[in-house]
């Protein structure tokens, strides 16, 4: 698998629950663990086709407990709620970084529509 973007640095800040990723083009993203969890590329979250997505709730305090390399193209993130089936390709991480504000707003809107209140 070839990727348009390759990370040069990946740092997990467990205390603040943020994954910091820097790419070879200079792009730098700080991705909260909750955000990465609710936008996991796994079938459990995304479903097996359009319209089958499963809204993830109660993930405010989720943290990453392990990061495993997958070949030269991705990482697998293990979360402390037991979720570990999402494989985040470099392109997926880059897109999640670029579209963070819009995707986060969309997630918050979906939570509100579902009647879920985020815990502080």
Q: Briefly, what is this?
A:
The protein has 120 residues and is an alpha+beta fold. It contains four helices and six strands; from the N terminus they run βββααβββαα.
By CATH reckoning, the class would read Alpha Beta
Number of helices: 4
According to CATH, the fold-level topology is NE0471 N-terminal domain-like
Number of strand segments: 6
Poorly predicted ranges (pLDDT <50, ≥5 residues)?
none
End-to-end C-alpha gap? 39 Å
Query: Major sheet: size, sense and barrel closure?
Result: 3 strands, antiparallel
Overall domain count: 1
Q: What structural class is derived from the secondary structure elements? A: alpha+beta
Helix content: 25-40%
Shape: globular
Order of helices and strands: EEEHHEEEHH
**Beta-strand percentage range:** 25-35%
How would you characterize the overall build of this protein?
There is one protein chain. The protein is an alpha+beta fold. The strands form two sheets. A three-stranded antiparallel β-sheet has the order 1-2-3. It has helices spanning 33-38, 43-46, 90-98, 100-113; strands at residues 7-13, 18-23, 28-32, 64-70, 74-79, 87-89. The model has no long low-confidence stretch (mean pLDDT 94).
How are the elements arranged and paired?
Layout: E1 7-13, E2 18-23, E3 28-32, H1 33-38, H2 43-46, E4 64-70, E5 74-79, E6 87-89, H3 90-98, H4 100-113
Antiparallel strand pairs: 1-2, 2-3, 4-5, 5-6
Overview features:
single chain, 120 residues, alpha+beta, NE0471 N-terminal domain-like, three-stranded antiparallel sheet, 4 helices, 28% strand, globular
């Amino acid at each position: 698998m070839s990727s348009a973007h390759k990370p040069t640095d990946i740092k997990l800040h467990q205390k603040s629950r943020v994954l910091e990723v820097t790419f070879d083009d200079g792009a730098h993203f700080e991705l909260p663990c909750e955000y990465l969890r609710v936008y996991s590329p796994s079938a459990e979250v995304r479903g097996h086709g359009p319209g089958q997505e499963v809204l993830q709730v109660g993930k405010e305090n989720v943290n990453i407990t392990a990061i495993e390399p997958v070949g030269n193209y991705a990482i697998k993130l293990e979360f402390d709620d037991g979720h570990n089936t999402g494989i985040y390709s470099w392109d997926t991480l880059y897109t999640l970084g670029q579209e963070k504000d819009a995707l986060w707003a969309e997630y918050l809107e979906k939570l509100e529509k579902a009647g879920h209140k985020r815990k502080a």
